[in-house]
Amino acid sequence: MDFAAHRFADNGYHPTSVAEIVQGLGVGKGVFYWYFPSKEELFVEILREAQRDLRRIQQQAIGDQPDPVQRIELGILATMAWLDEHRHLSVLFEFAATEDRFAPALSRGREVAVGDLARHIKEGIVEGRIRDSDPLVLTYAVLGVVNHLARTFIIERGDPPEQVANAAIAFCLRGLLGR
Amino acid sequence: MDFAAHRFADNGYHPTSVAEIVQGLGVGKGVFYWYFPSKEELFVEILREAQRDLRRIQQQAIGDQPDPVQRIELGILATMAWLDEHRHLSVLFEFAATEDRFAPALSRGREVAVGDLARHIKEGIVEGRIRDSDPLVLTYAVLGVVNHLARTFIIERGDPPEQVANAAIAFCLRGLLGR
DNA sequence: CCATTCCTTGACCGCTCGGTCAAGAATGCC
DNA sequence: GGCATTCTTGACCGAGCGGTCAAGGAATGG
Q1: Which of A98, A129, A134, A162 should we substitute to test contact with B (largest number of B Cβ atoms within 10 Å)?
Q2: Rounded to an integer, what distance in angstroms lies between the CA atom of residue B93 and that of residue B99?
Q3: What is the pTM of this model?
């Protein structure tokens, strides 16, 4: 499954055939269809596992930090580190979002992530730490910054994740104008 | 070409066959290969034209506005309106970014967009309107916010583009914390 | 009215794909 | 050992793909 994930990320889902995967693994085709009902299902399984892992890392990083703003910062840091370590999976997320077949599998996990972040933001608003605005919009804006900066600077350029995370945090907190 | 773009956006590039396109157009397959060297080239052409069109709209919206911050705001507004009117093309952009074959065609146009925005941001920093930070990071952060909010609220939920644009502008300028 | 060029057709080709399956190996259990 | 169950193989299949091409209509110019 790990091998398949790498092939999918490097070659693309469609251009990577089942024959290629089993050949790279040195096994027959039958063993593939013994463990997975289809190529599609394998991919979905990869997605699900990746999402579970990412969320686990995030929650672990946040711990029981009481300050919502700091929870957001810790979450961004952990996310950037994870994306750095699992670049190939990040590529698969991106692809999966563009295919109707895989969008449902993705969106369930994304809803969870959105829910987590939105909760912190709402709490921040209640405490007066975050400016009063639609929490959902703020949530998606933060996710957009994190995703885009990670893709551009970590995955494409190979910058260190902490540095990119700090830039993302600074932008999310202060925007362009800053204090 | 317009019909093909819609089919690609609705069905996906790979699952949409040339046969399907020409049948939907009510013509033979030969006429397709008379005008386009391949399915791949057709797709690249669609991408190029879309990028040209988007940039034209952006520059037209900005006009000769002297204030860099206001140029950014106008650009975001125009972009959101364009994405609203051309949702299918936005889907294609997303897909193209996930395929190595199309990434080069995309990245040229994206570099132009990044260059445009980065110029405004640099000017803003020089004038002291924008906080002093790596302009490239700020550029990609803004693009991330705009793309993600557009995809989530305009394309998926169908919200009015001006409203989403204003939310994006507010976030980009002030971030979570606000002034 | 023919000749030439431009355009259009759709049957066809070679190929690759996801998926199947009869035929064994390997293993465990008595 | 004998038998059943679990796993593994790779040739094979039908389907669908991108792309070709001989054939023929439609316009144009002389």
Answers
A1: A98
A2: 10
A3: 0.90
> Cβ of B176 under 8 Å from any chain A Cβ?
yes
Cβ separation A167–B97 shorter than 8 A: no
Length in residues, chain A: 179
Gap between the Cα atoms of A132 and B36, Å rounded: 53
A97 contacts chain B (CB < 8 A): yes
B149 vs A140, A173, A179: nearest CB: A140
Q: CA of A19 vs C1' of D11, distance in Å?
A: 13
The candidate with the shortest Cα–Cα distance to B137, out of A175, A50, A108, A121, is A175
CB B37 within 8 A of CB B51: no
Which chain A residues have a beta carbon less than 8 Å from that of B94?
97-98
CA of A27 to C1' of D3 (A): 28
Residues of chain B contacting A7 with CB distance shorter than 8 Å: none
Across A100-117, b (16+ Cβ under 10 Å) vs e yields eebeebbeebbeebbebb
Buried b (16+ CB within 10 A) or exposed e, B68-82: bbebbbbbbbbbbbb
CA distance A154 to A160: 7
| pLDDT value at B142 more than 80 | yes
- CB under 8 A, 24+ apart: contacts of A104-112: A105/A44, A105/A47, A105/A48, A106/A47, A106/A51, A109/A47, A109/A48, A109/A51, A109/A52, A109/A55, A112/A51, A112/A55
- Residues in A touching B121 (Cβ below 8 Å): 176
Using 70 as the pLDDT threshold, list the residues of chain A that sit under it.
178-179
Each residue of B61-117: pLDDT tens digit? 999 999 999 999 999 999 999 999 999 999 999 999 988 889 999 999 999 999 999
| Residue B47: per-residue pLDDT | 94
